[in-house]
Every structure is written in C-alpha cells, then in structure tokens.
Amino acid sequence: MDRADLHDDVDKALAGDEPALRRLVAVLTPVIQARVARSLLLWRTGTAAGRDVRQEVDDLTQEIFLLLFAENSKVLRSWQPERGLTLLNFVGLVTERRTASFLRTGRRNPWQEDPTLTEELDRTSPEVGPEELAASREQMKLLLRRLTEELSPLGRHLFDLLFLRELDQAEVVAQTGLSPDAVYAWRSRLRRLVRRLLTEISARTSED
Amino acid sequence: MNDDDRWLRELAQVANDEKLAGETRFDGRWDRLSAGDLSSEEEAALRALAKTSEDGREAYKAFRPLGPEFQARVVQKLREQIPRPSPAPVPEPVPDPPAPLPFPWPVRRISVWLGSGAAAAAAAVLLLIFVPPIPRYTPHPSGGVQAMRGAQSDQLGTLVPGSTFDLLLTPQTAVSGDVVVRCFLARGSELRPWPVPETAIQKVGGGVLRIHGTVGSEIVIPPGGWTLWAVVGRPRALPDAAALRAHLARSQTRARGWEALKIDLKTE
What we know:
The complex is a heterodimer of chains A (208) and B (268).
Chain A: H1 3-14, H2 18-43, H3 53-77, H4 87-105, H5 120-123, H6 137-150, H7 153-164, H8 169-176, H9 180-207
Chain B: H1 3-25, H2 28-35, H3 40-52, H4 54-63, H5 67-81, H6 107-114, H7 116-129, E1 137-143, E2 164-171, E3 180-187, E4 190-193, E5 201-205, E6 208-214, E7 224-233, H8 241-249, E8 254-255, E9 258-267
Antiparallel strand pairs in B: 1-2, 2-6, 3-4, 3-7, 5-6, 7-9, 8-9
Helix pairs in contact in B: 3-4, 6-7
C-alpha cells in the first residue's frame, strides 16, 4: 500500500468507513506487534518476564489499536505527516511509549497529550548539579525508558533528530516543518524533562 | 555544551546502543515473521532457533503472526468505539420555486426597471432560498497545553507555540454536497476574519471537517483570550464578518445553510 493510499485509508477509517478500517488494521498489526514483541523481550524483567509472552503481545497489540482510536481517535488524529514521521513510525513510537509505561507500572494508564508541555514541568525541575546526577549505565537505561514513556511521538522524533542524529536547527526545521522558535522550545523542554527524570531516578536510587 | 545537553547526548548514545543490540538480537527476519513476509528458508531458520533455545522459542511465540482472527476481533472492537456516520439521509426536499410575483410585467422588464444593482440583490435573496440546509454541528476542540497533569486530554488547553490545535466539526447526520468552514476571532466588541491556510483544513467526508495545525505555524492567533467562531455551511451561504456580527447581535448562530460554532481559546 503506497503512502497516499494509506493516508486515504486513515481519513476514511476515521470517518467510520469499515473497509478502510480493515485495511488499516491489516497494515498496522504487524508493525505494532513487532514493536510490542521487541520491547517485551528486551525490557521485561522480574515477574513480568514469567508471564506468557504470546498473550501479552496479543493484549498489548489490541490495546494500542484501542488507544489510537479512543476519544474520537484523538491519538491517531494527532499524527501530522508534515512533521516528518511516517504513519508506521508514528504508530511504532506510540507503541513503544505505551509498552514502556505498561512495563513500569503494570497498568493501562491514560494517554497524555504531551507531558513535556505541562506548566507543572517548570515547577518541578529544581536545579541539580552534575555531581548529584551521576548515573550508572543501568540508570541511563532506566532514564531512557522513562523518557520513552513521557514523550509523545513528536517529542521522541525531535529527540532523535536533535540528539541522536545531531541535526542542526535548520535541518530540524526543514524535516519537521516546525518554526525555529518551536524547535528551540522543544530543545528547552527536552532539557527540563531530562532534568526532572534524572532527579526522580536519583531520588529513588538513594531511597533504595 | 551545557550539562543538560550532555545528558541528552549520553541518552541518545544509550538509545543507539540499545537499538543496535535489539537489531542484533532480533534482526529484520522477526519483523517479517509478524508481517507474514518470510521466505521459506528464513522461516525454517527461525523455527530451528525456536527449537534450540528458550530465547528463540519465546521470540517465535511473540513475533508469530497474530492472524486474521485477531484482526477481525480488533475491527469489531473498533467498530464499537468509532462513531459511524448515519446512513445517508433522505435528502430534504428542495422547496418549490416561489410562485411568480403577481406583477403584470415579465421579470426581464423588472430588472431593467429596478436597475442592475437591486436585481442582483433580489437574485441573491432568491439564491439563498434555494441553498440546501445543513444539520446541526458539534465542535470537538483539542490540543494545547493542559494546566494540570492528568487533565482530560480531550479538552482544549492553552495554545502555546509548538503545541497542536485540532478542531473537529461533526454533523448530527451525514451531509451531502459541499460544506466548508470560515473562521472568525472575537474579543469584546471586536470580530475579525481568522484566515486558516487551506492545508490546515481537511474535508474528511460526510460533511465532517477538521482544522489541524501547529500553533505558531499554520495556527496563528494573537496572545490572550479569544472566542473562535467556526462558521460551517454551504459555500454560497456563509456570512462575512459584518453579517455574522449582525446575526450574533440578535443571538442568532444559525440560518439556512450555515451554523456558527463557538469555541473559547486562550493563547500565549
């Protein structure tokens, strides 16, 4: 199915067209399943690792679909192809985020629009020096998991562009269609989010 | 580089390392297994892995296609969740043309007598009589930044640069024919057109319209509190700012062929 057909089917499925919905489910099922499977097999620990993986894959894959279409398909409607994420990548990031949340809490938590955009983020980000935030490799992995859980697909895409691929401002603007101010704002939000999560993880570690 | 960027770059390195480790442990064959796209040799290799190691067995169970029964079950659940358009309504009868005016002169002579300007106004009035009506519409705004974590995510938060704005306009029943939207911003006694780029407006089908974009990019609104009036209707029936102001002054938000939907906004 080419990209234009897929866009078309998304629109039709959102309008309640059942044949389009079937086609969309057929295209997205292996993408979601593979991401769920990979995440569970790589990240499950402790008692979670003892549960039947097939059943968990089935349950979580179904849950991702329900999440995409819940509340008037709010999550699926938040996909903006002009931001540089294909539908399959977008759905893949939604899947990773939800799976990370489930593995950490064991619960099906409500989907958050983008917690990096909440005003509360500023109030709960105290200044902490680097010596207080020294983190082991395991803590960095945990931090990455928390970041995956907290970021929306767009936020994760920007993290990948800015810090994984280390694109400069102009390149990120060109790839996402965001304004330079918006990219700058995202960079600041990502910094504040990492600071908050590091503090959270360090506090939890010192309590252990 | 400040310390936060250093952490972010280290995180990115960890992400990259994890991605490579994941790809080494579960290469592309496993994704193709889920998609049902394996060659017979590849499938045989993965089955052999499943027979010889616990990890392989677990992976085979996890990635094996979920199958058509799973997909049918998902479609069934989604059907219960997605609002479906009502069956195409029987179109409302277009009213018969009004009875000829009891003038002794033919209409052609009327236009000459009235003058072309007045005749154009009369023609516009007649045109409006024949505009097909539209059902009631409901606005569904979402996006922006919620003030409190855990706030209902289907409510509209404060619109800050970089946040998304989504406005879905849904009719009570499916609509045939062209329906468009024209937007206005109001504050106090001010009412002004609010141009939205065509690329930000989507006609979903059945009369459903969607305005979607990024604040500061497609969606540009001056800071402060505003009332957005999204006027949905037939292209030829939509009021301009002056006409809308007059209708709103009479508390009238709906007329033949259009309806004005009110959404309160706050921007920074």
